[in-house]
Amino acid sequence: MSGCPLSVEDVAWFREGGATMPGAVRRAARDLAERLGLGASRASEIALAVTEAAENVHRHSVDGAVLLRALRTGGRAGVELVTVDHGPGMANVAASRRDGVSSTGTLGIGLGVIERVSDAFDLHSVPDRGTVLTARFWAGGPPEGAPGHVLERVGGVTRPITGEQVCGDAWAARETNGMLMVMVCDGLGHGPLAADASAAAVEAFCTSDRTEPELVMDVLHRALRRTRGGAAAVVRVDPRRRTASFCGVGNIAGALVREDGRSGMTCVPGIVGHQMRRLRSFDYPLDGVGALVLHSDGLTERWQPSALPGMLDRSPLVVAGQLLREAGVRRDDAAVVAVSGAW
Fold first, then answer.
1. Helix (H) or strand (E) run with residue 222 in it
2. CB contact at 8 A, 336 and 299
3. Which residues form the PPM-type phosphatase domain (predicted)?
4. 7-146: which CATH topology?
5. Residue-wise burial string across 157-187, b where 16 or more C-beta atoms lie within 10 A, e elsewhere
6. What does the pLDDT look like over 262-297, one tens digit per residue?
7. 150-339 sits in which CATH class?
């Protein structure tokens, strides 16, 4: 199997800015569901669940935001929701998911509604740090084979620099000959031209059937020659050998994450599309590794898994969201991708 079985299209980030935010999120969710052909009834259910999530961000959080995006895989389309905030967090997540539990005197049915309406739901919260919630909504249930699907083993989030509508960072994943391949690209600069570079990288990655990371990087190099170029990294996860092979150029960080710490992966200087030295892949054992993470320099290196207990037990998308919340900066485009459950 080759090609990218999962297409992710960011629709909008909604930052907490007052009482109008939940209404804006509701309208965007309904419009997206209808545009994707999910039907009027399912669109209404999705709008209800997404509104509850946005109300929670508005009522309970500090510096919260809501991301809506479109998912496409195997001829199916769905809506994905991600919320992130910087506190106050939940002391008891299990209790908060039960109907009737509220800290502000409301009915306390928000999380229950989201979980019941969604086809996939996950949540991770750290008191005094923040919460990440994710949900996926399909028409007629999740795609066939979803438990083993790439979207269950890889999760990523991008966010544009403050003031921009498009993000110059992008990521993609594919499965080829039993190997899980993941790519992250940070187009030089910001705005549409940076987004063009990262889009060219995604297209080249998804249409290639190469599984050697350095050869995939060469494919990206040729594809980005017509753009301003960028930083990029490719990782191959071999589930049989329980190893990861990594090849990166520029400021893409790779990390092998365990509960008690993380170790970095080697990236070399250069600009993909314009100036690259001779490429080499580096191999890393995955035994004992909870997650493999790739991110652009829109995240700082100042994050430690020990500050986010239980994170590695959650889905890859929640891991990516927590790291964006923990280490993302507003003065740059950001991309973070997490891989887990793949070895």
1. helix 213-223
2. yes
3. 152-341
4. Heat Shock Protein 90 (3.30.565)
5. bbbbbeeeebbbbbbbbbbbeebbbbbbbbb
6. 999 999 999 999 999 889 999 999 999 999 999 999
7. alpha beta
